[in-house]
Amino acid sequence: MRQALMLLMLLICDGCTRDKAGSASAAAYTSDSGSELEAPRLIPAIQNQLNLMASGVRPTDPENLTAYRNLGSDVVNSMAADLHRAGMADSGDFRALRDSVMDDLGGGAEGESKLDRPELHEHIARMRRLISIYQQGMRSAGDRQ
User: Fold this and answer.
1) Structurally, how many domains does the chain consist of?
2) What is d(CA 124, CA 3) in angstroms, rounded to the nearest whole number?
3) What is the rounded radius of gyration, in angstroms, for the C-alpha atoms of the chain?
């Protein structure tokens, strides 16, 4: 029952965060300081999933895994867009870690997810580090203004 509720929550979050075809805006590319950040509203859902996976609840069935992969990709792309809009120069740490996380999710050159393998705990640690780097970067951007 708990997994069914988590899947429902992920599907609702995923459905709410995806743009419909033809409704894309330039907001992701706007560099003005009035732009709304994308990642903060997605981070709690991904952190909840990371906590569940760390405790042994893995997204094992294909639907749960797909929902997690979509949410994870959205979070990573949103964090990168937010940092870019905030004018934060990437020292390479964020980009390298982002590439590793996307590879875990199946978004790399090979396109195969590594989430159902023994490397799952490494993925969880990488995703948490990526979120931490993002949050530190956004705090630094706020301090500069």
Assistant:
1) 1
2) 18
3) 15
The answer to whether position 12 is within a domain reads: no
CB-based contacts of 93, cutoff 8 Å, min separation 6: 133
The beta strand positions in the chain, using DSSP E, are none
> pTM (2 decimals)?
0.70
Closest Cα to residue 18, out of 51, 48, 42?
42
Domain that holds residue 73: 38-144
92: left (phi over 0), alpha (psi -120 to 50) or beta: left
Percentage of the residues of the chain whose pLDDT score is greater than 90 = 37
Residue 8 contacts by C-beta under 8 Å, 6 or more apart in sequence?
none
End-to-end CA, the chain: 46
Q: For all residues of the chain together, what is the average pLDDT?
A: 76
